[in-house]
Amino acid sequence: MKQNLHAFFIVMMLSTTISFAQTNCENIIISTIDIGPPISLCDNESTDAAVVTTVSNLPTMEYLIVDLDQTSLDGLGPAIIGIDDDGEFVPADLGITGNRNIAIVPITYNIQDFRDVVDAAFMNYYLNKPCCAFVDAIYPNFCAAMIAKGLTDTSNINSISDIIAVLDLVLVTSGKDSVEGLVYKIILFENLIKAIPDECLEPMSICYAISPTRQVYNIGETPTINDISETAPNQITVDASLSGTGNLEYALDPNGPWQSDNVFDNVSPIGLVYIRTVGTQCMIAYPYQTASLAVELADFSVIVQGTANILQWKTLTESNNEGFSIYRAEDGVNFEKIGWVEGAMNSTTTQAYEYRDTAPLFGKNYYSISMDDIDGSTTFSDVIVVSRVEEADRFNVLTVQNPVANDILQVTFANNATGEFNYMIYDANGRIVLEGKDTVLEGINNFTVDVSQLNPSIYIFAATKDGFNISEKFMINY
Asked: 304: which residues sit within 8 A by CB, 6+ positions away?
C-alpha cells in the first residue's frame, strides 16, 4: 500500500494543476503561481501571504505547514506541523524555532462534503438502524469516538484541522501526518463512504486538491535573552544564547556599531540592547536599567479578562513621579503609547494601579509601562507579553448575551481588520427572521441588535465577513 501511495503522489507532483475526478467532483482545479526560490526568514518574523498566490474553484483554501527536516511517523514524507488560513504566520508562534527548513503546501476542499457525511451518519436511518451502526460495522467504535471528540455537530467542523480529527479516527496514527499520509487517509474515508448503504449517505463525494508546488522557507534562529545585569557602575553584561550553533553580536543601536563582546561600559541608566545572530542577522531587542529608580515598581502583571487586557502594578515608593505611560507592541520591539495613569507624586507606602486595554491586539500583546518623573526623565519597566485570539481566527464571535429585557441582543466579536459584515438571525425552523449589515472594526467589537419583535424561542445568530462564518445560539424568554 505504501509503495502504491508513493507512486500516486509522484504522479500528482509532476502535474502543474491537479484535478481529482471523484463522482460529482468534476473539473477541480488548484493552481499556484509566484512560487520562487527558498526564502530566508527569522523565526520571529512573519511570512508574507502574497508570496504564495493560489487559485481554486473549490470554496475553501488553507495551507499545510511542513517541516522538511522532520520525517512524519507514518514514514511517507516530511511531517505536517501546522495549518494556516492564508499563508501568513510567525514561525515561532507555531513552535518553529532554531535553524529549520519548512514549506507551505496549499490545499483546497469543500468542507460541506465532510459535513454532509458526518451529518448523514448521525442523523439518517436505514432498516430501522441509525446509519452510524453501518459505519461501526466497518470501523468499530468510530461513532463513539466522534461523539467523544464533539464532532457530531457539523457546526464544529470548520477547518482542515477538524477534518484531520475525523480522518484520524479512520486510521489512527501515533504522530504527525505527511502530506502523502493525509491523502491516504482521505482515500480511506472515501472508501468508507462507498461501503455504507446509499440510503444512509446518498451518493456523496469528497472534493479536494493539493497543490503540486510549495514555497520553501529557510528559518533562522533568533537569540534567546537569558539575563541583562548591571555588573559594574554604568556597565551591563548581556547573557544570550542559541539552541543551535552560531555566534552572537551585540549593539545599543540596531543600526550599529555591533560588537562580539557582550559587555557595555558607560551606558545610560535605561535603554535597549540588541542581540543578533551572525550570518542570519536574526535580531531581538530587550530593555535594561542600571540606576536606582525614582519609583520602586513591584508586581507588574497583565491578565486577559473578557474582551480586555488588564495591566496591574504596585509601587513601593515614589519620588517626584508624575505618572505612568502605557506602551504596547505586537512584535516586542516597536512600541506605541496607548494610555496614561496619574502617579502619587511622592509616596513611601504601597500604591496600586490598574489600566484596562479595551481594544487589545490579536495574538501577542507586548506591554511596558514608563515611570515619568516631573523633571522629564523616564524609566521603563520590563516587557510582559500575553496572547489572545490566535491569528488564524480572523473573524470570531467571543460572546452572545441573551437579550437584556428581551429587547437587545449583544454580540462581542474578535476581528482582524476593519470591514463590513452581514448578519442573520434564524429561528428554530431555519428561517431568517432578521438580517442586516454593519461595520466591524479591528480588535474587539461590541455589536447590538434589536430583537424586541421576536417571540420567545431559541434562535441562532450568524454572521459572515471576508469568507469567514460564525454562529451562536441564544434564547429569548418572557
From this structure: 310, 386, 388
Q: What per-residue string of b and e applies to 392-410 under the rule 16 or more CB within 10 Å gives b?
A: bbbbbbbebeebeebeebe
| Architecture per CATH, 222-289 | Sandwich (2.60)
Residue pair 253/272 in contact by the 8 Å Cβ criterion:
no
Mapped onto helix, strand or coil, the DSSP state of residue 205 is coil
What's the pTM value of the predicted model, to 2 decimals? 0.56
DSSP bridge pairs for 474: 459
What confidence tens digit (pLDDT) does each residue in 128-145 have?
888 888 888 887 887 888
For domain 395-476, the question of CATH label 3.10.690.10 is answered with no
**Domain positions in the chain:** 2-218, 222-289, 295-387, 395-476
Cα-flanking dihedrals φ and ψ of residue 161, to 5°? Answer: -65, -40
Q: Which residue has the higher pLDDT, 45 or 294?
A: 45
User: Which DSSP category does 393 fall into?
Assistant: -
Cα pseudo-dihedral 129, 131, 134, 135, rounded to 10: -150
Whether residue 349 has pLDDT greater than 50: yes
CATH no. of 295-387: 2.60.40.10
Average pLDDT for the chain: 80
Residue 262, pLDDT above cutoff 60: yes
